[in-house]
Amino acid sequence: MMITSRKNPVIGEYRRLAAERAYRAEMRSCLGQGRKLLDEALDAGLQVSSVMSAEPVEGLDPSVSRYLVKPELLDYISPMKSAPELLFVCRIPEPGPVDGARLLLAEDLQDPGNVGTLIRTANAFGFDGIILAGACADPFGPKAVRASMGAVFRRKVWMLPSDKAIGELKKQEIPLIAAALRADAVTAGEYAFPDRLALAIGNEGHGLSAEMLAAADRVVRIPMEPGAESLNAGAAAAVLLWEVYRRRGK
C-alpha cells in the first residue's frame, strides 16, 4: 500500500507510537526503526504487525502489513535526527512474574538512551532480565529500543514502583546488591557476588533511593582515583556486570 499524505491514519498511528508512552502501553506495541532491529524483533519471535519503508522490504511473512512512503514521511514520523530506512510496529513482550538468576535493577533512570544501553549491557553479560524501578524512561520508546540494539526484545523487562520491585525480590529470595559510594560499601573486586542476585544501579544525580539502599543485602562500590566524579549509570553498570560475569568464569 502506498501512502503519500501526512494525514493518513497509519501515519498518525506511527507518530503516536513514537511519541506517547501511554499509547504504547495501551496498545502493547512499540515502534522500531532499521532492518537490523526488525530482524532482531523477528528472531526474538515477536509479532511484527506492519513495516513502513521507502523501498520494498523482502523476506516478510504475508501477515505483515507493508506500507510504501516517501523518505520525508519516515523522517516526519521518526524522533531520530536522521531518516530511517524503515519503521516497523511490533508487539511488546509480556515479561511474566519477576524471576531469573541474575537481574539488573535500574532506579529512576530518566534518559532513554541510558535505559537502552543498560539493557544492551545486561544482555551482553548474561543477565536474565532488567527491573526498571521508580521513574525510569520507557524501555520501548524508539530511542531506548535503538540504544538497546534489539536487546530489549531478547531480555525480560519489568517496570515496577520501587517498593514493589523490592517486594518481588524478597518474595523470590533474590539478594539485592546495591551500588553506592558509601563508607560501609565493599569494593566490587573483593566481593564474592552470589550466584543469584539483583544488582541495583541508581540515577546519576542522586543514586539509589534511601528505600532501595535500606533493602539492600550488601552495598558495593567501584574504586576510583581520589577526587574523581562518580561514573554515570551506564559506565558503572558495565564495570559491575563485567565483574559478576568474570567471577562466573566467563
Please, could you describe this protein's structure?
The N and C termini lie far apart (49 Å). The chain has nine helices and eleven strands. Strand 5, helix 5 and strand 6 (129-133) form a beta-alpha-beta unit. It is α/β, with parallel strands linked by helices. The radius of gyration is 20 Å and the shape is elongated. Helix 5 runs parallel beside helix 6 (142-148) and helix 5 runs parallel beside helix 9. The strands form two sheets. A seven-stranded parallel β-sheet has the order 7-6-5-10-8-11-9, with helices on both faces. It has a four-stranded mixed β-sheet with strand order 1-4-2-3, sandwiched between helices. The model has no long low-confidence stretch (mean pLDDT 93).
> End-to-end distance, in Å?
49 Å
Distinct helical segment count? 9
Which residue ranges are poorly predicted, with pLDDT under 50 across at least 5 consecutive positions?
Answer: none
Order of helices and strands: HHEHEEHEEHEHEHEEEHEH
State which percent range the strand residues make up.
15-25%
Q: What is the strand arrangement across the widest sheet?
A: 7-6-5-10-8-11-9
Radius of gyration: 20 Å
How does the helix and strand content classify structurally? alpha/beta
Biggest sheet, open or closed, and with what strands and sense? 7 strands, parallel
In total, the number of strands is 11
Q: What is the arithmetic mean of pLDDT?
A: 93
Q: Roughly how much helix do the residues carry, as a percent range? A: 25-40%
Q: What overall geometry do the principal axes of the alpha carbons give?
A: elongated
